[in-house]
Amino acid sequence: MNARLTHTNIQIETKSLRFLLVTLITFIILYSLFWYGVQKYQLVYESREYPMWIHVKNLINTQSEIKQKMILIGDSRAKAGFEPVLSKDNTLNLTVGGSTPIDGYYTLLTFLENNPEPESLVLSYSPLHLTHAVYFWERTVKYNFLPDNQLDEITGNLLKYNDSGIGTKNQLWKYKFLISMYISSVAEGIKKKRWVINKKVKYDLVGSKGHAYFGIRNGTDSLNGEVKEANDFQQSELIHYYFVKLIELAKSKSIKVFWYTMPFNQSSCEKVSPDLVKNFNKYIDRIEIETDINVIKKIQCMDNKYFGDGSHVFSGSKITTNDILLAIE
To answer: Which range of residues forms the domain containing residue 17?
Structure first.
């Protein structure tokens, strides 16, 4: 009797183990398939920022013998504010939305590995994107913009230089292993059929040589992020480190470096903190003295009618483009 019970218990335990093993293997296979799909088809579900980042990633990683008169590195305001097709010379807009000089340094580094040195480099970041790298995890890392060795270098530098946007915890592993970091984007992408607009954005970027609009209203009195989010300007230690490193890299290749601050609309100019304007302009003055770059414009104001939204120029892009082209001649 006891022998029979023992035999029966062994059979039950064996079946349970088999079930658990099959369940585990099934889970691993399904998880791996979903993970592959999430990584392989980001263009299908991510926001329209994604094809912009990938376009720049492809440009800087593709070998070319074409010498550029000028390249522009910066954030979304510069993405909207500089139209390379208006230049008679070879120029490229290598900006990406939400980026900082951290991304900018590696953008230039990789570009120079695959392309001749351009004559000039124009840098253009909003004040907020010199205070904290708020999109580092959600774009730089999530979009696989940089290779692992460069990401490791950045997170290693967090031990020496602070940035409130990135924080102190290394989250690289989450974006490498956890599907949960992508679920909300997948759901939103399917709901909004993002693959339709992303396909068009990808196509348009080739013809525009990296230029893209954001807001497309014919004027707006909406307020920008500096008004909504900041009372003062305080540099990020990590961003400052890479900002100087970026300039030094360009100068080591005899590239002329310029700075251009994209304009605020008039409504934002009237409400932005005077301390932010004063201290940001002082910071750019300091960079100019310490690195000997050419400052074209610090914080400037432009009529509301030239803006497509509170932060980005629309019809005003021809004015800002011409400002830059005239300065680098």
So the answer is: 1-40
Q: Are 174 and 272 within one domain?
A: yes
Q: Classify the phi-psi angles of 144: left when phi > 0, otherwise alpha if psi is within -120 to 50, otherwise beta.
A: left
What is the rounded CA–CA span in Å between residue 9 and residue 31?
32
The pTM assigned to this predicted structure is: 0.92
Indicate which CATH number applies to the domain containing 305. Answer: 3.40.50.1110
The answer to whether the CB of 130 falls within 8 A of the CB of 236 is yes
Residues 69 and 36 in one domain: no
Query: Is the per-residue pLDDT at 206 higher than 80?
Result: yes
Of 101, 95, 168, the closest CA to residue 131 belongs to 101
Q: Are 96 and 103 in contact (CB under 8 A)?
A: yes
Short-list 208, 195, 182, 210, CA closest to 52: 210
Per-residue pLDDT tens digits for 245-287: 999 999 999 999 999 999 999 999 999 999 999 999 999 999 9
- Give tens-digit pLDDT for 131-143: 999 999 999 999 9
Same-domain pairing of 91 and 159 = yes
SS3 content of the chain, % helix, strand, coil (to 5): 60, 10, 35
In the block, which residue shows the tokens 């339709």?
196
Are 25 and 171 found together in one domain? no
The answer to whether the CB of 280 falls within 8 A of the CB of 235 is: no
pLDDT for position 150: 97
Shared domain for 47 and 177, answered yes or no, is yes
Do residues 245 and 312 share a domain? yes
